[in-house]
Design a protein that fits this description.
This protein is mostly beta strands and 298 residues long. It has 2 domains: 3-132 and 142-147, Jelly Rolls, CATH 2.60.120.10; 161-286, Jelly Rolls (Sandwich). It has strands spanning 3-4, 15-18, 29-35, 39-41, 47-49, 54-60, 71-77, 82-86, 90-94, 100-108, 112-118, 126-128, 145-147, 182-186, 197-203, 207-208, 222-227, 239-245, 250-254, 258-262, 268-276, 280-286. A hairpin with a 4-residue loop joins strand 7 (71-77) and strand 8. The chain starts with a strand and ends in a 12-residue tail after the last strand.
Length: 298
């Protein structure tokens, strides 16, 4: 993954930043980094408008409790500067054309993760003047703040015993041992109709991730993002994985933060975790509101 200085006025320090030109033409861009102290960002000042839908994700780093954020975050939405405050892992939905910002991490007990993605290959933004001189209270935009929990009905699945938490625990669902310890997954149905589905999860076990076939594919493009959880070393993953790509299962081995680009209908897997020194994070961004994963024939 590429660590670079974000566009001026957006974030205060370098972070992972990748656009379609870095992702083999993937029709979205994303950024990933850590927040270690109270900070203002996205943007540092004023408000922005994008010509595409965007998701701002805030997650904790407590790898044994995916529902713990350990921070207080606020974001201003609309030209009214309607301020929303949350203390749980959440995604802020920014429909195209909606003025937003700044986002503020006002206090935190421990480092948190912030990643964001926009549904066009290149980042573009227009600075706009807010219509209010100070943040306001209200709930016009409250529906754009979503808890990072799984809606099992969106996935077409019977909810496991953990339904009350909205957490997927793949090991209890009969998949391979290398799959996630705890995962949350949001679909377009959960995201005000955005044409995307995405995940966040913590992983710490070795072994193959999936059962049922050697490789699968998706009708739409997706990226697989493997990231470490050491806020002082963004190049550290803490694990080594092996991933098959293409019809011949061409094997690729990596042990640093890595993104795997899977165009629509491109076979990929098997995915095998070879060793783990420390838990790591993994998220998928798939360019569809749904997530079909048929097995590919050998």
């Amino acid at each position: 993954m590429i660590i670079r200085q974000p566009p001026a006025g957006l974030y205060p320090e370098p972070r992972i930043w990748m656009e379609g030109k870095d992702l083999e033409g993937f029709n979205a861009h994303f950024t990933f980094g850590f927040v270690k102290k109270p900070v203002v960002f996205h943007p540092l000042e004023g408000m922005l408008v994008h010509p595409y839908d965007e998701c701002l994700v805030f997650e904790g780093t407590k790898s044994d409790d995916i529902l713990y954020l350990g921070a207080e975050v606020s974001v201003e939405l609309g030209e009214e500067r309607e301020e929303h405050v949350f203390t749980e892992p959440s995604v802020v939905l920014i429909p195209r054309g909606l003025p937003h910002g700044p986002a503020k991490v006002r206090k935190l007990d421990r480092t948190i993760v912030h990643y964001a993605f926009g549904l066009e290959p290149a980042y573009t933004a227009e600075a706009v003047k807010p219509g209010a001189a100070a943040p306001t209270k209200g709930n016009k935009y409250g529906h754009l703040i979503k808890r990072m929990i799984t809606n099992f009905k969106s996935m077409g699945m019977e909810p496991p015993s953990s339904e009350e938490t909205g957490v997927i625990r793949p090991a209890s669902m009969g998949v391979g041992p290398g799959n996630g310890d705890e995962v949350v997954w949001l679909y377009g149905e959960d995201l005000e109709g955005f044409n995307v589905n995405f995940t966040w999860g913590f992983y710490s076990q070795c072994g193959k991730w999936h059962r049922g076939g050697e490789a699968h594919y998706h009708p739409e493009a997706e990226i697989l993002c493997f990231v470490g959880l050491d806020p002082d070393n963004p190049d550290y993953l803490g694990a080594e994985l092996e991933l098959g790509m293409g019809k011949d299962y061409e094997r690729h081995i990596f042990n640093t933060p890595t993104v795997a680009i899977c165009p629509g209908a491109f076979p990929h897997l098997p995915l095998i975790t070879r060793w783990v020194d420390k838990p790591y994070g993994f998220f998928v961004i798939c360019l569809s509101g749904e997530h079909a994963s048929p097995w590919a024939e050998a």
